[in-house]
Specification:
- By secondary structure, this protein is of the alpha+beta class.
- The protein has one domain: Jelly Rolls (Sandwich).
- It is 19% helix and 30% strand.
- It has a nine-stranded mixed sheet with strand order 2-3-13-10-15-9-8-4-7. Strands 1-12-11-14 form a four-stranded mixed sheet, with no helix packed on it.
- Helix 3 packs antiparallel against helix 4.
- The radius of gyration is 18 Å and the shape is globular.
- The relative contact order is 0.22.
Amino acid sequence: MDTVRDIPRVAPPSAEVFESDFVRASRPVILRGAIGDWPALRNWSLDYFKQEFGERELPIIREKNGSHYDVDTGLHYDRIRFGDYCDLLADGGPHGLYLSVRVHEAIPELFDDIRRPAYTASARWARSRFWMGGPGAKGPLHRDLPENLYAQIGGRKRFLLLDRNLTHMVHRHSFRSGVPNYSPVDAEAPDLSRYPRFRGAPVLCADLEPGDLLYIPSMWWHQARSLTTSYAVNLWWLKGPKVVVARLAELYMRVRGLNL
């Protein structure tokens, strides 16, 4: 698309500059070298995961009928032994599966290899997910309430982002659906006959390498695809009044049984 622009790549600023120039301004940015002191960059690999956590059974998202989710029920989850998934990735696949698990629930030991950035030090609410997929693994276009720092540990991944103020362009699913924060639009190859409002959407692109830390502002739409076998961890955080909103949202998801 001719409306795609690259997200700036900068040296890590101070916490004060990051807050004023990026968080308050709602500006995505790639912080190069910001996680250079993380043990994860040295330790994490398919062999490491298989050796340390290979027997652990984890939830995994599976593509069905060309989609990773059902509009009414949410994401399609199965279960898989982590070692078996590592073997599948080592063999060059599979494209229809990707791992997205809550670190504190599924593999809390991964926190030993992470150093929480100063940018999130004052957060009153924080969550993390571990992400892993083979070449071509692709997630749906969606948005999240929390501020997001996405740390690329291994492999390469491409993100496409759209400003939160342009929500009218994405034909978002209904709030009452099973995926209220998702869009049916494929930002890489939009079907403009079905989703005409996406025409001309000013998409931002981030191609991440190991060691990159991508800031995705609160409520920005984003979609990711693994360019190679990829593993990463993200750090969601909030402070101020949004903390109450996040806790209410978590309660809402539990009450409705949303599979996200």
